[in-house]
Design goal:
- By secondary structure, the chain is mainly alpha-helical.
- It has one domain: NCX, central ion-binding region (A middle domain of Talin 1).
- The protein contains 17 helices and three strands.
- Strands 1-2-3 form a three-stranded antiparallel β-sheet.
- Strand 1 and strand 2 form a beta hairpin.
- Helix 8 packs antiparallel against helix 9.
């Protein structure tokens, strides 16, 4: 009996069972047809997201036997944040369908706010929180990537040197993002550049070698023992099913949280920028926490960085496409001065985070800095919104806060890059070598530690 309970199929079946209540509700008319309260909707859809996240993680780990790990994690990242694309696409579509109206401008601003919120959450809570969680869990998992050091928050997580290519592409997208506001909005040129960057990245990693990684245990080990055709079919099924669950369940999960927050007095715009993206990022964070819990922090951080790259390129780039289709012509998604400041602080945070990773390490001190800067900025802006009677004055103060944090992020990032300029040069050499290998001889480049 105990052996049956510990069998990998038991875990697989349990994860599927977590999604079944949502499947039944979705197939029979959705939460409204069942008159579910907001709290019940959040509970049922949230449990489904949890189950689907485990299925997605198992699919990605199983796929590593047949495709390069970076590519498997890139697929995982796209599926995990697909709901964020759906939410932003909805706002971009509304903006394009109502060009020249107040509703259209509001929707365009919400699209940018939701996008910048999601990107900042991924670094401010995701990168920092997972680094802290990794060091904490290492006491139990004995994760070899964690280096315990004496001193105040000196312990650090060592990252995979193979993510050099991701970091370089992320840096390129970040530098470009600083110039987006100068172009009057998010347009087709941005789509070409940013989506082009992502496609170039994918074309490099998909040609990488399938390497032997650490031995799997549990569900992935069981599935990797299948014959290759059966294994591939299983992986595709896991990706398809978990992706469908995440895509359909996260939006009701987010809207339910928004309704609960508004009932508690949280401003609607604040909910759209922070609570909805937090819900849509939850599958990714669950997957990474699962990997860290298995002492696979390297794969976890690779997934987080891949998620940031696809959100910072594909997510921004597709907004102009959706907007143009809805508008009926090739157009530019507009945004106001406040969203300009939001884009700049998001790019600045990304710049600082990339600077931290240039030595392929992230210490508890650096993780805490990312977390504190993110939390204090959000709290400060929230305080201004709820305590300032004049909306115009609140917006003015909020913009000043955003500019102040933008400057702080840039100064900290620049100081790190100057001190780590040799590591930065090595990063570029690594990325150039990966590109040559992918497009040329196909022989793996030698990554120096």
């Amino acid at each position: 009996m105990t052996d049956r309970l510990q069998h990998p199929l038991t875990a697989l079946a349990f994860a599927v069972l977590l999604t079944i209540p949502w499947v039944v509700i979705e197939l029979t008319g959705g939460p409204h047809a069942h008159h579910l309260s907001h709290l019940a909707t959040v509970a049922v859809s949230g449990i489904a997201v949890l189950g689907a996240s485990f299925l997605l993680a198992w699919g990605a780990e199983t796929a590593e036997k047949d495709v390069p790990r970076a590519f498997a994690l890139a697929v995982l990242a796209v599926l995990a944040v697909a709901p964020e694309y759906a939410v932003d696409a909805l706002y971009a579509w509304t903006a394009g369908a109502n060009v020249g109206t107040a509703r259209g401008m509001e929707a365009a601003n919400l699209a940018v706010a939701n996008m910048t919120g999601a990107n900042r959450i991924l670094i401010g809570l995701g990168w920092s929180g997972i680094a802290i969680f990794t060091v904490y869990q290492a006491k139990r998992t004995r994760d070899s990537s964690v280096e315990h050091k004496d001193g105040f928050l000196a312990s650090r997580v060592h990252l995979d040197h193979d993510i050099g290519t991701e970091i370089v592409f992320l840096l390129a997208a970040t530098v470009y993002a600083f110039f987006v506001p100068f172009m009057g909005g998010i347009g087709i040129v941005d789509t070409i550049v940013l989506v082009g960057l992502y496609l170039a990245y994918i074309s490099i990693i998909i040609r990488g070698d399938v390497e032997e990684h650490e031995d799997q245990v549990g569900v992935p080990a069981y599935l990797q023992a299948f014959s290759r055709p059966k294994r591939i079919a299983t992986v595709l099924s896991l990706f398809a099913y978990s992706g469908a669950m995440i895509f359909t369940a996260v939006h009701p999960f987010a809207t339910g949280l928004e309704a609960l927050g508004q009932a508690a007095g949280v401003p609607p715009f604040f909910m759209i920028q922070w609570i909805a993206p937090l819900a849509s990022e939850s599958p990714e964070l669950i997957v990474v926490a699962y990997l860290v819990n298995k002492a696979r922090s390297t794969a976890g951080f690779n997934a987080l960085i891949s998620s940031k790259l696809n959100q910072w390129t594909l997510l921004i780039g597709t907004l102009a496409v959706v907007y143009s289709i809805a508008a009926g012509y090739v157009g530019t998604l507009p945004f106001d001065h406040k969203q300009t400041a939001e884009i700049w602080i998001t790019a600045a945070q990304s710049f600082f985070a990339i600077a931290i990773l240039t030595n392929f390490k992230i210490s508890l001190r650096e993780a805490a800095t990312l977390l504190v800067l993110f939390v204090t900025q959000v709290v400060a802006e929230y305080y201004v919104i709820v305590t300032t009677a004049s909306e115009a004055r609140a917006t003015e103060i909020s913009i000043l806060i955003l500019y102040a944090y933008t400057v702080l992020y840039i100064v900290l990032g620049a100081a790190l890059l100057v001190s780590r300029r040799q590591q930065l040069q090595a990063l570029f050499r690594t990325a150039a070598g990966d590109a040559r290998d992918a497009m040329g001889s196909g022989q793996p480049s030698k990554h120096s530690d």
